[in-house]
C-alpha cells in the first residue's frame, strides 16, 4: 500500500520555491511531520544541479536595413508601456514576519538570540541552550498593543510567554525568554491585537494579525 500525505499535499511548485528561498514556514512545518512531502522535497533538492554556461554561436555582422532614428522612439514608448503594466499588475510582496493591525499599523516581529553571552539579532538558527526573546517594532502612538507568542513544531504548539501589553516603538522586547529543544524546524508566531488579549487559537503564517519567523536547527561545530 502506498503512503499518502497526512493532510493536503504540498504542490511541487511550492516545494521548489521553498528550496529556492526557504521562507515558507508552513511548508517547513508540514514536511517535518509528513514523510511523503518530505521525500518529494528531498528529491527536488537532489535534482538541483548547476548547468554549464551557454555559448552563443558567432553570427556574421549584418548591416541594418532600417533607420535607427525611426526605431528608437518606438522602442522607448513600448518599454515605457511595459514598465507601467508591470508596476500595475505586480502583487505586493508578503512578508510573514510583518502584520498590519488596526489601530497600530504595520508591526514587524523579530527575534533576539543569546548564546553563551553573545547577543545576535540577525540569526534564525538554534542550538540547545540558546535563549530567545521576541521584539516588535511599530510606529509610536497613543494606543498600546497586546502580544501573545506561540512556538510551533511538528509535535504541537507551546505558549512560552504570558500575553503582554506593549507600547509601540523600535524593537520593544516582549517580557520573558524561552529555549528551543529538539532538532526540528520551529516557527515562532506572535498574535497581535490592539483591542485586548488575543484569543489563543493555533496561529498560522499569513493569518490576520499574525506575524511569524522560522527558526532552523544548526549543526554543532566539530570539536
Report a brief summary of the structure:
The chain is 24% helix and 28% strand. It has helices at 12-21, 25-33, 35-47, 68-89; strands spanning 98-101, 105-115, 118-120, 125-126, 131-137, 144-153, 156-158, 164-167, 172-173, 186-193, 210-217.
Shape: globular
Looking at the structure, the CATH topology of the domain at 98-217 is: Immunoglobulin-like
The CATH class of the domain at 98-217: Mainly Beta
Task: Assign the CATH architecture of the domain at 98-217.
Answer: Sandwich
Order of helices and strands: HHHHEEEEEEEEEEE
Instruction: Round the mean pLDDT to the nearest integer and report it.
Output: 80
Q: Distance between the terminal alpha carbons, to the nearest Å?
A: 44 Å
The rounded Rg comes to 24 Å
Major pleated sheet: 6 strands, mixed
Percent of sequence in beta strands = 25-35%
Uncertain parts: 49-54, 83-92
State the secondary-structure class.
Answer: alpha+beta
Question: Number of helix segments?
Answer: 4
Number of strands: 11
Helix-residue proportion? 10-25%
What does this structure look like?
This protein is α+β, with helices and mostly antiparallel strands and 223 residues long. Among the domains are: 12-47, no CATH class; 98-217, Sandwich (Immunoglobulin-like), CATH 2.60.40. It has 4 helices and 11 strands. It has helices spanning 12-21, 25-33, 35-47, 68-89; strands at residues 98-101, 105-115, 118-120, 125-126, 131-137, 144-153, 156-158, 164-167, 172-173, 186-193, 210-217. Strands 4, 6, 7, 8, 10 and 11 form a 6-stranded mixed β-sheet that branches. Strands 1, 2, 3, 5 and 9 form a 5-stranded antiparallel β-sheet that branches. The radius of gyration is 24 Å and the shape is globular.
Amino acid at each position: 500500500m502506498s503512503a499518502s500525505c497526512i493532510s493536503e499535499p504540498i504542490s511541487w511548485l511550492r516545494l521548489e520555491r521553498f528550496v529556492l528561498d526557504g521562507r515558507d514556514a508552513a511548508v517547513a512545518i508540514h514536511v517535518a511531520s509528513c514523510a511523503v512531502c518530505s521525500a518529494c522535497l528531498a528529491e527536488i533538492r537532489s535534482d538541483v544541479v548547476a548547468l554549464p554556461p551557454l555559448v552563443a554561436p558567432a553570427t556574421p555582422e549584418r548591416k541594418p536595413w532600417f533607420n535607427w532614428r525611426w526605431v528608437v522612439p518606438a522602442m522607448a514608448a513600448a518599454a515605457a508601456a511595459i514598465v507601467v503594466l508591470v508596476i500595475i499588475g505586480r502583487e505586493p510582496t508578503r512578508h510573514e514576519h510583518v502584520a498590519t493591525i488596526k489601530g497600530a499599523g504595520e508591526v514587524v516581529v523579530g527575534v533576539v538570540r543569546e548564546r553563551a553571552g553573545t547577543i545576535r539579532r540577525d540569526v534564525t538558527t538554534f542550538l540547545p541552550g540558546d535563549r530567545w526573546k521576541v521584539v516588535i517594532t511599530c510606529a509610536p502612538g497613543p494606543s498600546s498593543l497586546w502580544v501573545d507568542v506561540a512556538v510551533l513544531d511538528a509535535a504541537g504548539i507551546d505558549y512560552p510567554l504570558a500575553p503582554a501589553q506593549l507600547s509601540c516603538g523600535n524593537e520593544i522586547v516582549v517580557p520573558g525568554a524561552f529555549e528551543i529543544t529538539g532538532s526540528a524546524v520551529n516557527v515562532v508566531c506572535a498574535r497581535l491585537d490592539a483591542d485586548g488579549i488575543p484569543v489563543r487559537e493555533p496561529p498560522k503564517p499569513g493569518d490576520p494579525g499574525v506575524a511569524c519567523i522560522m527558526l532552523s536547527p544548526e549543526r554543532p561545530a566539530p570539536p
